Amino acid sequence: MSERPGLPAMQPFFLDTVRGTRFCLYHAPPTGTECRGAFLYIHPFAEEMNKSRRMAALQARAFAATGFAVLQIDLFGCGDSAGEFGNARWEIWKEDLAAARQWLVERVAAPVHLWGLRLGALLALDFARSRGDAIDSIVLWQPVMRGESFMTQFLRLRLADDMLAGRAEQNGGTRALRDALARGEALEIAGYDIAPALAAEIDTLDAAAWSGIGSAIHWFEISADANRPLPHASAQLIAAWRDEGADVRLHPVQGAPFWSAPEIAECPELLSATAAIFHPVHA
């Protein structure tokens, strides 16, 4: 199905997995174009996924127009895929990525790359390091590097909701919420049921403790000021990976945080920066 003649085809379908179906969008390169490779897109967490749909669609179409195949997958319990978000687990999401990557491998005779946004970037790295075969390259859009820090920020959304609802007196801070999770209580945060097991899994994730990923990494860091230094922890991590021989390329981008904007937003600077890396090279 093409949006109009000359544009790459986009095919929605449901991918069968051992735990139900996953909604996918497949963007094929233009007919008659040699496939340069394939990207598997890994979306961010909870509402950030919805806020980022437009940017993901724009980038997927841009990749496809330049000869890449792209597969977007809604992970277990997310979007239009089977399962409840409250039953989601990190390992299930990694199983989904394995199924999606295999689907691509069976259809595209070219390298398969990963492209992750925010917590999806951390999932991409964890998936890559757990595989026996190396992923050719990984594109990280504003990556989350420490799961515990990310989860603390997410829990603060619940505190903000409590304050707006006049329940500030019941507010015991993120420590109280973590205590509830530790007691096995699920939490409803910003419309999403968070299982204690998933929160605990995310808390343990720390890319700084990972080595030997073995893939070329394109790290796109977005900020309002292109001259603002990279956060110290991220700079240290990139330096450590480079010391190990990893090919890590940092791409600072001046732009807005579209994944957390009140309304659906675009970051054309990020699209341009990504296109500049993967645009076809002509003789």
From TrEMBL:
Record has Hydrolase as a keyword: yes
Gene Ontology MF terms in the entry: hydrolase activity
Entry keyword Hydrolase: yes
Origin superkingdom: Bacteria
Sequence ranges assigned to domain Serine aminopeptidase S33 in this UniProt record: 36-157
Keywords: Hydrolase
InterPro entries for the chain: AB_hydrolase_fold, Hydrolase-2_PEP, Hydrolase_4
Official protein name in the record: Hydrolase 2, exosortase A system-associated
Organism of origin: Noviherbaspirillum cavernae
